[in-house]
Write a structure and sequence with these properties.
Layout lengths: L1 H36 L9 E8 L9 H16 L13 E13 L3 E13 L6 E15 L16 H21 L5 H13 L19 H8 L5 H14 L7 H21 L6 H18 L4 H14 L4 H4 L7
Parallel strand pairs: 1-2
Antiparallel strand pairs: 2-3, 3-4
Helix pairs in contact: 3-4, 3-6, 4-5, 6-7, 7-9
Amino acid sequence: MLRQVVSDIQTLREKMKLFSEKKIFHKLVFICIALLFFPNLLMAQELRCNISINTQQVQGTNKQVYTTLQTALNEFVNKRVWTRHVYQINERIECSMIITIQDQSGADEFRGTIQVQSRRPVYNSSYNTVMFNYLDQNFNFRYVEYETIELNENTHQSNLAAVIAYYVYVILGLDYDSFSLLGGTEFYTKAERIVNNAQNSADRGWKPFEARANKSRYWLIKNILDKRYEPVREFIYRYHRLGLDIMYNKAPEARNQILDALQLLLGVYRQKPDPYLHFMNVVLEAKADELVNIFSEGLPEEKNRVFQILSEIDNSNLAKYRKITGQQ
């Protein structure tokens, strides 16, 4: 009798073990199927990007194609996974792209500009700081209505996909640079690969000799990855992580950190790696108004010191910087 009871218990254990193994197996099958057909389920996308198409300069064309294009671009940017990192929904990078169509030649050829902006939240506040605000005036592309926009990172096939992806990687690079020192290199390198792939293309904006004052996609990424511009990237980190992110609780210390970081830009300006300093000017253009607001609340000595630096390295915004010291 006892032997029978023991035998029954062993049989029950084996059945329970088999049942448990089947449950685990079924879960694994479910996860594999989910990953196969829905690979983005376990990873929120990195960007919350609003892409809009401005067609006011174009007359007498099929407006529906622009609506389709706008939808396709928003899906391309916001549904694609651009990094190997896991983002929470509230961690997505806020950005926008405004494409202004200036001319349409034929059914699928377009020429215009693209304005790109990205923003970053400041710790312990509801404030978003502008990271990037850039107007690209050399944007030509082909688009057939309802076609899927796809990026091939190994070759230049679609100028539309290449330009959009290039700016996505610049946005990611700047964001990562602001949280860790030189943290965006991986994404800048991907943007550089897109530039290199386009060197034999007839599309404008990718080559070194096409731009006035080095204002182009080519020169922007070359500057960013140039060792001589590393102090500008260090400025981005110190300005945001050591400055803005502590502004709420430690405003005097934050202003002091930002003032010290500006010395890095002064060093690059005086070294002059190239005559145009395109990357540094892009950074300053995004921060000019913010710098005025930050140091308008500073001590007289801080105001005078920051005004001296900014008036030297960014003379084009001198009228704005005069407000720091109360000048008209």
